[in-house]
Amino acid sequence: MAAKVKHHVRDLRLAADGLRRIEWAEQDMPVLRAIRERFSREKPLKGVRLSGCLHVTTETANLMRTLKAGGAEMRLCASNPLSTQDDVAAALVKEFGISTFSIKGEDRKTYYAHIDAALDFRPNITMDDGADLVSRIHGDRRDLAPGVWGGTEETTTGVIRLRALAEEGKLLFPVVAVNDAGTKHLFDNRYGTGQSTVDGIIRATNRLFAGRTVVTAGYGWCGRGFAMRARGMGAQVIVTEIDHLKALEAVMDGFQVMPMARAARIGDIFCTLTGDINVLRAEHFKVMKDGAVVANSGHFNVEIDIPGLAKAAKKIRRGIRPFVDEYTMRSGNRVYLLADGRLINLASAEGHPACVMDMSFAVQALSAELVAKNAPRGKMTRRVYDVPAEIDKFVAALKLKSMGVGIDRLTAEQKKYLASWEMGT
Ligand code: ADE
Fold first, then answer.
1. Gap between the Cα atoms of 333 and 274, Å rounded
2. Are strands 49-54 and 125-128 parallel, antiparallel or unpaired?
3. Is residue 148 one of the residues assigned to a domain?
4. How sure is the predictor about 252, in pLDDT bands with cuts at 50, 70 and 90?
5. CA 63 / ligand 1 centre spacing (Å)
6. pTM of the entire structure?
7. Number of domains comprising the chain
8. Residue 352 in contact with ligand 1 by CB distance below 6 A
9. How far is the CA of 55 from the centre of ligand 1 (A)?
10. What's the domain range around 205?
11. Among 79, 89, 112, 325, which residue has the fewest nearby CB atoms (within 10 Å)?
């Protein structure tokens, strides 16, 4: 099968390992499985060309299987140069016949060549995690825009970029903000990032969290998740924020909140989860304790000022362990940068567990179906769409059912009470 499927992956001989791990993830993805079964029967994506730019993981492989079962023709590339699981990329090509372009550790040139390979497919639907496909179509590949019905976007950073584009009136096709669905960000961003970021830092360093001071930059859903789990591991957690409301919430949640200039002096482990640039910079590295660990779990590798770190250092030793570089400051203190400042949870660990990606990717599959049904008929305009409430409700209900959890129904009296304004004491 692989011979006919266009691809660029590390090694097709890894496919058998990839297949076993994809099947393992599938066991914990009951919602996506149910959608796959319906898609196999109904083929709502029949003949649709879909290009995905996603982290190439076991969970993504199960999404790709679902879209293929729905009749889509697909090309997949990575949404981060370090997040690809090479065995999964091999299995996608060899076992599932899905055209895949991604290699863990690919350089910048190859990363963009892979994005272009996915776009050369002339997609009707784009599926992004970080808006790289959409950005490219709005830049050098504008010729493709007329053929694109619409897109879907997985992550906070991508949605921010798309809203900026729409705000300027420049968005060329509709895009569904999958990230903003409750069944996505409340679970994936919080519980997924929380666990997988701790996992990534531990796999890279084998450092103990208990008794350490962990600094969380940002208290959005991802920051909340990481702070919560770091505390659960026994760390003292400091939160830094630029938003008064979020800072107040962190204080009330029982965390210490302070400016990074102060936190930099006392932290043992730092993690950025803000979506913004240069959150950790030279002025911070210079005052860090000897042995401080710095990592990023935000989408792009811009949150840690790495050129600033290199400039502040008198010596750099790369790869002292996998995903760990040592920067010795002029003071003699050593600062350890993890995974080149790229998404630590996907670089040194396996990303979010399948149980949460089940919901995120169920929303992705249903949003692709929504675009395929509505956009070609002119029922969607050039704007950023929220995921319809019915999709969120459907995914939540199915997830609860798969967990064997029942909930109550409103009685007729309760319905009436909630619909009236006169009734009180
Ligand atoms: N983003 C975070 N974790 C992920 C995973 N396991 N698969 C795909 N995208 C992800």
1. 26
2. parallel
3. yes
4. very high
5. 11
6. 0.96
7. 2
8. yes
9. 6
10. 193-347
11. 112
